[in-house]
Amino acid sequence: MKEGNDERRTVKVSKYLSRHLRHQPERIGLTLDEGGWVEIDALLAAAGAHGFRITRAELDHVVATNDKKRFAIEGTRIRASQGHSIEIDLGLPPAAPPAHLYHGTVARHLDAIRAEGLRPMNRHAVHLSPDRETATRVGARRGRPVVLAVDAGAMQRDGHVFRVSANGVWLTEAVPPRYLRFSEPH
């Protein structure tokens, strides 16, 4: 039973970190620098002061074991790897993408995607996966997954810029519909 409780705690800490390192740092009195970094000691103190005590060991465990590598530690600082809804500059250089990238979604979004393509919504960039398996897992978080193929090679040739985050997520401003290949859900 203890292992299940430990796993639940790890998930809870991960979600807390995501909320405050990607979306609402001010909610617990944090100020991220322009690259999204904050001192680990400041994060732990702010969390504790707001009723959510996290030990350094728990933080290190969450960072090390997160399957999506959502967080990065550099020296005494931590940041979310991507997915911010607040204004930050991850400092990622443009990168040449593979010929095809993938996006996981669910069927209820397909009509809008067919009409408008992929848009960042409340994030700074559209997130793309390097393989179908990862995109399937991403789509499955919201229901039965549908995986869209993105002609990233053609997009780049046409002047679209791609960047890749530390955890292997490909980022671009938007994906117009003409670069998408739709396959119907099974």
UniProtKB/TrEMBL annotation:
Transferase recorded as keyword: yes
UniProt KW keywords: NAD, Transferase
The EC number(s) this enzyme carries: 2.7.1.-
Major enzyme class: transferase
A Pfam family this chain is assigned to: PTS_2-RNA
InterPro entries: Ptrans_KptA/Tpt1 (IPR002745), RNA_2'-PTrans_C (IPR042081), RNA_2'-PTrans_KptA (IPR022928), RNA_2'-PTrans_N (IPR042080)
PANTHER family listed in its UniProt record: PUTATIVE PHOSPHOTRANSFERASE, TRNA 2'-PHOSPHOTRANSFERASE 1
Function: Removes the 2'-phosphate from RNA via an intermediate in which the phosphate is ADP-ribosylated by NAD followed by a presumed transesterification to release the RNA and generate ADP-ribose 1''-2''-cyclic phosphate (APPR>P). May function as an ADP-ribosylase.
HAMAP family registered for this protein in UniProt: KptA
Entry similarity comment: Belongs to the KptA/TPT1 family.
Name by which UniProt lists this protein: Probable RNA 2'-phosphotransferase
Organism name: Streptomyces macrolidinus
